[in-house]
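Hello Y.,

Per our agreement to keep a running log of every chain we model this quarter, I'm adding this entry. I've kept the format consistent with earlier entries: sequence first, then predicted structure.
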Amino acid sequence: MLSIVSFIWMLTGCSFPKPKFGLDSNVYRQKIGLEILLKNWSPISTGETFTIWRAPENLIDKGNAIFFSKTVRYTKNYQLESEEDIYYSGKKFETVDGMLSENLVIKYYFLPGKEKGNEVLGWYCEYQEFTLSQEQPYKAQKNYILNINTVTLDSADSLLRQWGLSPPIRKVK
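Predicted structure for the entry above:
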């Protein structure tokens, strides 16, 4: 009896939610102008209403600009809410919280969402950059402060090109 219960638990209780909106959604992403998922990407976290995909480990931390991750959010009824693409410039900065990377976040809201207290539908972009702190804990150590700035989609795409990355063709602006 115990082995039957264990087997049923293994089939149901131990399984994680299946990732939603994976490679099969790339055609739809291209129509909008979102980054597509590559075949060598895999989900690193899946919940009831989200899936996070990430670039393979061998491409990360090489000091180069990279399309790093994609978070797909959806309702419990599997209606797309948003997709968030995160890019790293390859530059790292020492902060009071440790070494952090300069990055760009490009989101697309299929359903109205909230950003900084404002309702958003469509594109939303944030550039997370670092500036040198005026107060240095040690003379030999430079300390940087994180600045998060909302930017336009055109500015975000321009920044990606400056980093040597090719943004997707944006068909919905």
